Amino acid sequence: MNNDIPPVAQKAQLAKSLTLITIGALAVLGGIAFAATGISYATIARVILGAASGPGNVPRGAESLAGNFPGILMRLRFCAAGFMLAALLTAIYRRAFSRWIAEAVFPLPRFLANAIRHSVAVLHADSRLHFWMLLTLCLLGAMLRVWFLFDPVSFDEADTLLSYASRPLYVGLSWYPQPNNHLFHTLLLHFAWRLFGDAEWAIRLPALCAGIVLIPVTYWAARVLYEQHAALIAAALVAAAPSLVSFSVNGRGYTLVCVFFLLLLIIGRYLLEHESPPAWLLWALVAALGFYTIPIMLYAASTAMLWLGLSACRSDALRSRRQLLTRLGSALVVTGIGTTVLYLPVVIASGVTPLFANGYVQSRTFSYVFANFPESFEKTWYLLTADVPGPFVFVLTAAFAIALVYHRDTNGYGVPVPLAAAVCIPVLVLIQRVVPFARVWLFLVPLCSIVSAAGLWLPGQLLASRSVSRGSHLAVAIALSCFLLMGVAGLYGESISSRSALPGIEDIAIWMKGNLAPRDVVVVGFPATAPLAYYLRRHGIPLESRPAPCDPMSTVYSANAWFRAWPVSGETRVLAVVTDQWHSPKTVLATACLAANTEFASKRIYTRPGMHVYERYVGPGVH
């Protein structure tokens, strides 16, 4: 009987059914959230604290839960009310919601499949040389990244695994004590850890995959914003850029943000010429995933949004301009709703303060922002140009400027994206009154590579206009030259290898396994704390741990279960793990309140690259 119903009518009926299911699901979620407010603290502590416990984190987890429990109940009530309100609004506007499902949600899988087929077809149509060269760049870029994949872990990587990704998802995706938890990356890392274990390469797998995917995505972004030859050069620059190589082997979410930013530009370019509800939905979903990865997606998404709006304003047709801006506003609403839903576990369990008022995003004075601007700019410039030879930096900078000045001559589309970034980013920074870390601007590296590649190719357009094959060969030669120049510079430079200043941390963990006496105490200062905890755990070295009494960022370890309180009694050997870059024996011991209470001078007993172990004795009766 259903075969007699036209496909359009079937789709409309299915959309209405999904609308009713959505209304029911929202109402049920509201009821569950309200019922959850009746759960006692003892039940929550029994379930969650057992999963949240870990080396050095049981007190912190317990204090966090105990302090936030009344707030959790209050936020659950607000959440229940929000779900009920959403169910009511969906019911009131059920016809518009059903129409949106039929026009945007149902066609999305087919739209994605067609986009992939079109991308492959266009790449084949460019030339076989382009196809094989892009594939070669992807392989070379992957090899360059794998070279650094097995370096010792940094503090942020180890802390991400130990504090979030190795815990149950309901803990890792809701506990947000600081912005170190890149939630979407934590989700991916959790599954990588489950499948492949906790080796260095495994915890860097999501960032590595994103870093490799960034190469073809850069090609496609450059192709839709400029043209195919510039795209090949841009892919080569991104494949070898030392900063991108470094963050591709750093188990964090920054390379994911780079990919999402370029995807917004690619989809936006399509939307400027096509009216496509599924494309708008895809734009919103990509933006929401970017925000779910790191909130700094605000800068990347705002740049893409402003570029899309400015390019739309250049349209000759007033009606199409208004329609596109209206669609953009709707997409921003969907992005906001999607981001809110994704962050609900964090908001309920941790509140909004860690998101909007943590120490890294708290507003400063304007004088502070302007006083620290030169240093911030210097670090950002280093991020963009690290290990790149000075003459080539000059060439790339000049090419970047040429591409902006001669935007039309480079076959550039719409408004130059860097113009949108130059307008919105300073405004956002001044509104927030913050001085972001240099790594926040990593998403600008592929953008600058694309624009510089367009400027590099501008002289080559003359040759390409005379002979297509000669133009392709010239583009391949320039791309290979750029990759070799930047790749070799990064391979033997300092920016990537210095990503971890703790090259001997694993050796120290292994040394402890065979050299700690029962009553020995180990004191470790930040930032060696999380990496040492990671390698102690990986090598199965059971040590009791607790925050250092005079510096909670440092850690005190002992091999015995009696280690419950500080100070210790009786004669005790205290081992201080010291790094060349950050510590001295005195500063490390001071974190345990032992700077003056020692009988003997510190003695170096073990040395590894960049790190040392010092020995001191605490006499009996010291309190």
Please render the helix and strand layout as text.
Elements lengths: L6 H30 L4 H12 L5 H35 L1 H12 L2 H19 L1 H20 L7 H11 L3 H4 L10 H14 L3 H4 L1 H21 L2 H13 L1 H7 L5 H18 L5 H17 L3 H17 L4 H25 L1 H7 L2 H4 L9 H20 L4 H16 L11 H16 L11 H14 L2 H7 L1 H24 L13 H11 L5 E4 L4 H10 L5 E5 L2 E8 L13 E8 L5 H6 L12 E6 L2 E8 L5
Parallel strand pairs: 1-4
Antiparallel strand pairs: 1-3, 2-3, 4-6, 5-6
Keywords:
single chain; 623 residues; alpha+beta; 6-stranded mixed sheet; 28 helices
Could you please describe the fold and organization of this structure?
This protein has a 6-stranded mixed sheet. The protein has 3 domains: 104 residues, no CATH class; 372 residues, no CATH class; 114 residues, no CATH class. With 623 residues, the chain is α+β, with helices and mostly antiparallel strands. It is built from 28 helices and 6 strands. The longest helix is centred in the first third of the chain and has 35 residues. About 2% of the residues have low confidence. Helices cover 66% and strands 6% of the residues.
Low-confidence stretches: 51-62
Strand content: 5-15%
Q: Look at the helices and sheets and give the structural class.
A: alpha+beta
Head-to-tail CA distance between termini: 86 Å
The percent range for helix content is 55-70%
Report the biggest beta sheet as strand number plus sense, adding barrel if it closes. 6 strands, mixed
Radius of gyration: 27 Å
Overall pLDDT confidence = 85
